[in-house]
């Protein structure tokens, strides 16, 4: 899969996306370090291939992992600066929460955080689904970027 590039100084407003998910009783916020064991257990169940990157993102200061939560239940996550500096991802939303704006709110929360760190652009590593990122933030495919940073990566049981 190809990487995509996002212009961070042209992002849609975050507050509008957060308002959409709040109407569904969902909060999008930065993860807290003490939540790490619970988040990693949840990720192992729902998104087993991304636990290592979530682990790294939670270990950063400021924490680089955002959660979507409703009534103490994790619905999704988005990370940045996990595999590489200035990379967005991974991101995942459970099937039951899709279609409620959760993915877009998580994406924008993480990308706005990258902008606050001083980045002008961000790379969405091995992006999929591309149409979602194009529509949500105007991301464009970086030609010749596949397999990119992931070339030669050791295979795992879930990759």
β-strand percent reads: 15-25%
Rg is 15 Å
Which oligomeric form is depicted? single chain
Q: How many domains make up the 3D coordinates?
A: 1
CATH topology: Aminopeptidase
Distance between the amino and carboxyl termini: 13 Å
Please trace the helix and strand order, writing H or E for each element: EHEHHEEEHEHE
- How many beta-strand runs? 7
Could you list the spans in which at least 5 consecutive residues all have pLDDT below 50? none
Strand order of the largest sheet: 2-3-4-5-6-1-7
Shape: globular
Tell me which CATH architecture applies here: 3-Layer(aba) Sandwich
Figure out the total of helices.
5
Average pLDDT metric: 96
Regarding CATH, which class?
Alpha Beta
For the report, how would you describe the main beta sheet? 7 strands, mixed
Share of residues in helices? 25-40%
CATH superfamily grouping: Gcn5-related N-acetyltransferase (GNAT)
Q: Structural class, please?
A: alpha+beta
């Amino acid at each position: 899969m190809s990487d995509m590039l996002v212009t961070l100084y042209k992002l849609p407003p975050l507050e509008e996306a957060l308002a959409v998910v709040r109407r569904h009783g969902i909060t999008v916020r930065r993860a807290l370090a003490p939540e790490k064991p619970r988040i990693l257990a949840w990720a192992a169940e729902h998104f087993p291939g991304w636990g290592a990157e979530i682990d790294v993102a939670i270990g950063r200061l400021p924490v680089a992992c955002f959660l979507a939560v409703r009534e103490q239940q994790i619905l999704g996550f988005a990370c940045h600066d996990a595999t590489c500096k200035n990379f967005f991802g991974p991101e995942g939303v459970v099937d039951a929460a899709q279609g409620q704006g959760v993915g877009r709110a998580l994406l924008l929360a993480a990308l706005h955080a990258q902008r606050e760190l001083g980045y002008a652009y961000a790379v969405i590593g091995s992006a999929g689904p591309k149409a979602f990122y194009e529509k949500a933030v105007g991301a464009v495919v970086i030609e010749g970027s596949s397999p990119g940073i992931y070339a030669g990566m050791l295979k795992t049981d879930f990759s």
